[in-house]
Amino acid sequence: RNSLIYVNGTFTEQPTIDVEERGFQFGDGIYEVVAVKAGRLLFTRDHFNRLENSCAALRIQHGFTYQTFEKAMNELVEKTHCENGMVYIQVTRGTASRNHAFPSPTTVGCCYAYTMSNASSAHALQEGKAITLADIRWLRCDIKSLNLLGSVLAKQEASESGADEAILHREGIVTEGSSTNVFVVNDGILYTHPANHLILNGITRQYVIKLAKEAGHQVVEEPFSIQFLEQADEVFITSTTQRIRPITTLNAKKLTDAPGSLTSKLQQALQATILNELN
Ligand code: PLP
């Protein structure tokens, strides 16, 4: 990561965290990850809207307008000379004497952000391995909260199986990946879990749905089973950092050698949308 950190309106290389910071003690906060390409933030408005929704759901004051948010994050990207990579942004309820209930309304929240630079962006990944696992997370997965233990344990299990992602299910119904949304294609129709409290409504997910519809494909946002996933023509996952990643191996069984035709088409369409954003 780059060493300069944004903390509540200032930039520092040595931020401190109080032992009673509520994000640290309770996971009482939310986060966002925004991609940076050619020194520019991508889909900033979408990420800000989701940050606002997450904060509203938890009754956390973030103190930004869209304009002040955009300005602060652009300044961070510039000051850290981040060309390609991402910005991590965290907002918490701040520091107060330890008590589960909310602190006094005068307690100042904490927003910090930093950048991470990558040599190249994850454009059009060609393969991906996933395992299926029970979804043991809480019932407000629509909030991008700091409480990530369900995802941490799932990703670790995937990693120990030599896979890149864990595709989660509740009683046989596929919800999403540990840090991605899941799509399947059957007969040219795109299927994904509806954006309710059981999944995070990914920004990439929203663009993929829009692009598929624009290309004339039907998109069905309805729950589907693990069997449906296993027998699908194409499977892919989406996220800000991985964009559209085909799942070519599922539970150690090879599904295909190459991304499917709709997967490739959507990868190209997303890349075009991103290049268009930068113009
Ligand atoms: N689902 C979960 C649980 C996630 O943590 C993420 C991103 O980190 C996503 C989906 C994908 O969201 P986005 O496309 O906005 O990065």
TrEMBL record:
Show the InterPro entries listed in the entry.
Answer: Aminotrans_IV, Aminotrans_IV_CS, Aminotransferase-like, BCAT-like_C, BCAT-like_N, Class-IV_PLP-Dep_Aminotrnsfr, D_amino_transT
Q: Name one Pfam family in it.
A: Aminotran_4
Q: Name one GO biological process term.
A: carboxylic acid biosynthetic process
| Gene3D superfamilies attached to this UniProt entry | 3.30.470.10, D-amino Acid Aminotransferase, subunit A, domain 2
Q: Which GO terms describe its cellular component?
A: cytosol
Q: Reaction catalysed by this chain?
A: D-alanine + 2-oxoglutarate = D-glutamate + pyruvate
Listed EC numbers: 2.6.1.21
Q: Which cofactor does it need?
A: pyridoxal 5'-phosphate
Functional note: Acts on the D-isomers of alanine, leucine, aspartate, glutamate, aminobutyrate, norvaline and asparagine. The enzyme transfers an amino group from a substrate D-amino acid to the pyridoxal phosphate cofactor to form pyridoxamine and an alpha-keto acid in the first half-reaction.
Question: How is the quaternary structure described?
Answer: Homodimer.
Protein's UniProt name: D-alanine aminotransferase
